[in-house]
Amino acid sequence: DTEVTQTPKHLVMGMTNKKSLKCEQHMGHRAMYWYKQKAKKPPELMFVYSYEKLSINESVPSRFSPECPNSSLLNLHLHALQPEDSALYLCASSQDRTGLPQHFGDGTRLSIL
Amino acid sequence: KQEVTQIPAALSVPEGENLVLNCSFTDSAIYNLQWFRQDPGKGLTSLLLIQSSQREQTSGRLNASLDKSSGRSTLYIAASQPGDSATYLCAVTGNTGKLIFGQGTTLQVKP
């Protein structure tokens, strides 16, 4: 069982819907990450939070909005997504931003109709 | 800009073989290198992490080496088993904490 829990495991939504992906860890890690992974490609970093503050945004479109309510939780709010946003969204955490090592969740499989 | 390359892209071997997966990176100024395993539709499982000051790490049948000066790492899998079939990803971390991934090697171990 992974120590990083992501919900839901699968999500199908229309382009006009608003939904949120959730990630939770209880390892006391202070850095949390969102990655996007397309089929047969490596994960691509989207956002990094360090001590609940956004430290890296990899020029992600504003239809993706991250939120870190506390040190254990990370959300990704979705609005007006496009079909090309269909992918596996992975959350990860690490002790701090030097990233030693990063622990990944099993991801949310997102499909945009 | 850091680039990570993994060779081969795919590998098929009979059960019991020892095998080596290769990873190279263009900028030697890394903090660490991490090998991951990914099963289809699943997240990444960390296998081994090598700090920049280390030369190798071992866990069970897995051994990873790091030659920072030449920008290379290898993952050695001894006595491969069908359960080892997965995609193996190598990733390096620099001073930003960002993981830079290679494209992965997809391994199939045939019974």
Task: Summarize the topology.
The complex is a heterodimer of chains A (113) and B (111).
Chain A: E1 4-7, E2 10-13, E3 18-25, E4 31-37, E5 44-50, E6 53-57, E7 64-70, E8 73-79, E9 87-94, E10 103-104, E11 108-112
Parallel strand pairs in A: 2-11
Antiparallel strand pairs in A: 1-3, 3-8, 4-5, 4-9, 5-6, 7-8, 9-10, 9-11
Chain B: E1 4-7, E2 10-14, E3 19-25, E4 32-38, E5 44-51, E6 56-59, E7 62-67, E8 72-77, E9 86-93, E10 99-101, E11 105-110
Parallel strand pairs in B: 2-11
Antiparallel strand pairs in B: 1-3, 3-8, 4-5, 4-9, 6-7, 7-8, 9-10, 9-11
Describe the structure.
The complex is a heterodimer of chains A (113) and B (111). Chain A is an all-beta fold and 113 residues long. Chain A is built from no helices and 11 strands. In chain A, the strands form 2 sheets. In chain A, strands 2, 4, 5, 6, 9, 10 and 11 form a 7-stranded mixed sheet that branches. Chain A has a 4-stranded antiparallel sheet with strand order 1-3-8-7, with no helix packed on it. Chain A is globular and about 35 Å long. Chain A starts with a strand and ends with a strand. With 111 residues, chain B is mainly β. Helix content of chain B is 0%, strand content 58%. Chain B contains no helices and 11 strands. In chain B, a hairpin with a 2-residue loop joins strand 6 and strand 7. The mean pLDDT of chain B is 94. Chains A and B meet through strand 5, strand 9 and strand 10 of A and strand 4, strand 5 and strand 9 of B.
Assess the beta-strand content of chain B as a share of residues: over 45%
Largest interface: A-B, 28 and 23 residues
Order of helix and strand elements from N to C terminus of chain B: EEEEEEEEEEE
Large-scale geometry of chain B: globular
- Beta content of chain A comes to over 45%
State the separation between the terminal residues of chain A, measured CA to CA: 31 Å
